[in-house]
Write a structure and sequence with these properties.
By secondary structure, the protein is an alpha/beta fold. It contains four helices and eight strands. The two termini are 17 Å apart.
Length: 196
């Protein structure tokens, strides 16, 4: 059965970007430290990245994150989904208005304008027998958890305090989590929870 897995890197103080994120400053000031683990040579970091991308039949993201990923300073041949670890899953973007053009034309993009539940359904359909990975941003993941659309929450807790930025959680619906695994590495603590 296809699972919806919210998978995101977060600072110790709860931010998924540093201050002032945007298309020209994707992860905000200092936010690159959140993803040090994805480029690490640590065997556990490599395994977690490889396993995470291998299970991705479709990837769901919000429009702001799409604008960063597809922007001039976004993904390229060296930096992309899974840090170039494996494959190219389908990408589904939840948005109120699709872009007029896409820079990364070699990726399979679907734009859903009818809301997050429909975007999750479209991603589930595109994923086939694999999982849907909800990569963010923070507001999209928070909304999906609040709406009961997420089965698993995978956090990559980076040893950094950003002080400001985009918070992962801003309140909302109370959810119970069941811890499934904790993997500490030199660059992050990888936490996996079932969302009830």
């Amino acid at each position: 059965m296809t699972r919806i897995i919210a998978d995101i890197s977060v600072s110790l103080d709860g931010f998924v970007t540093g201050p002032d994120p945007g298309p020209d400053n994707g992860l905000g000031t200092g936010g690159e430290a959140l993803h040090t683990w994805a480029f690490s040579d640590d065997p556990d970091d490599r395994r977690i990245l490889r396993e995470g991308t291998a299970r991705s039949g479709a990837v769901l993201l919000g429009r702001r994150l799409f604008d960063v990923v597809d922007g001039p300073g976004g993904w390229d041949d060296d930096v992309g989904y899974g840090a170039a670890e494996v494959g190219k899953p389908a990408f589904v973007v939840v948005t109120s208005s699709p872009p007029e053009s896409v820079r990364l034309t070699d990726l399979d993009w679907t734009f859903v304008t009818t809301g997050l539940p429909d975007a999750v359904a479209a991603a589930r359909e595109r994923a086939g027998d694999l999982d849907v990975v909800l990569m963010g941003g923070g507001a999209t993941i928070g909304s999906a958890i609040g709406a009961g659309l997420v089965d698993v929450l995978a956090l990559h807790l980076a040893p950094v305090l950003l002080g400001a930025g985009t918070p992962l959680f801003t309140g909302g619906t109370r959810r119970t989590l069941v811890q499934r695994s904790v993997t500490p590495t030199s660059t992050a603590t990888h936490l996996v929870y079932d969302v009830l």
